[in-house]
Design goal:
Layout (H helix, E strand, L loop, with lengths): L10 H14 L4 H8 L22 H20 L4 H7 L3 H11 L6 H12 L10 H7 L3 H17 L1 H6 L5 H4 L9 H22 L5 H11 L2 H11 L11 H11 L5 H30 L1 H20 L2 H7 L5 H12 L5 E8 L9 E7 L5 E7 L2 H19 L2
Antiparallel strand pairs: 1-2, 2-3
Helix pairs in contact: 3-4, 11-12, 11-15, 11-16, 12-18, 13-15, 13-16, 15-16, 18-19
Amino acid sequence: ACFALRGTLRATMARKLWRAGEERGSSLIMPVCRSMASFPSIAQWPDHEFKWPSIVSCEMLQQEIARQRKRCMEGKRNGVENTFDSWCLKDNALDNLETALRICPLPKDYMQNLMSVEKRIFKNSDITIDRKLLLLIAFMHVSWLKRGTGRVRKLRDIDSVRVDRERISDALFMDSPLIHQGNGGLEFLGDAILKMSISYGIMKESPEGKLKDTSIRRSMLENNELLGIMATDIWKISPVLLFAHSEMLMIRERRDRQELEAPVAARWNKALYQFSANCAEALVAVVALDKGVDAAMEFVHKDVVPNLEYILDSPSWKEKHGKDWDPISELQKVMQKRFQEEPEYKVLKEISQNNNTADMQFVVGVFMSGGNLLGVGQARSKAAARRQAASTALSKMTTNGS
């Protein structure tokens, strides 16, 4: 009877009721269960559920959605459309985003925190993002969307007729032109602009520099670990990250109570820095879509590169990594010196258990131009797998002396 409450009671509470029923007789169980039905459901508890969504709860967010809708209509009427505005008009994407944010609301004071983080990020380039929804999407992890689809299923269990009438479905999260990949689309664009901006800056500062030196310098500045440290420790973006991994949420609560064991804390920090690095790249795309590519390149030169160089020159970084902190840069340097060519990285295989993307493993190989395999790496991210493959290749070269 307790388990028939369909998830509205914690498992521990259900076990206590069951034990009490065995000790005092089954007549106890049903009256207690009926009384428990009048308790607030998990739907009203923080980070677990919700009341039936009616409006977007955050007034600042409502105003921003209204401004974006007006901006889209004016641009369409005048024949001048921004790329992001055109995304909002496609397949009623903005309306769907508004519905999605009703179903899966933002944390309390989220928009205020977002404004504070924006000031820290753009303090040197003096940029103010007009399309705040772009900033929101830049911090959105795909697990946040999975949380939304889970809530859609719970709403369907509550009132399937109303769900159909209000056109609520998984497609709000998984098929939206704006958020179906979380910040993945912005990250893809931002990564390309970041590489172009860093390359342009290096060549502008040192036009007489050798190609191998400029390539090594660029790969050092593009390092994901550097980007993650910058976003987490300098920009302090943690309060606005939108993720919903149950393990991360649990660890965050335990971290706040200072109850983390060292291995768990290390795993948490690694996941946090990796996603923060993705957000840093997405922010470059935010500037490009809102202000233009030239403004994005200026942002990279004024706000990103100085911070990365500051971290590179810090004693803590040098103490932790030493000279060989980046095997990718070291392998590139060795190959240019010995073979006058650059290594090439290819994804050989993607491994997942039971089609679970959260446990995805990437197998990456590093090759010479002739197709000779130098090393293989396997990790949960492509960047980590590339570093592992480069490290393996360096080890083989050292052992073989070739």
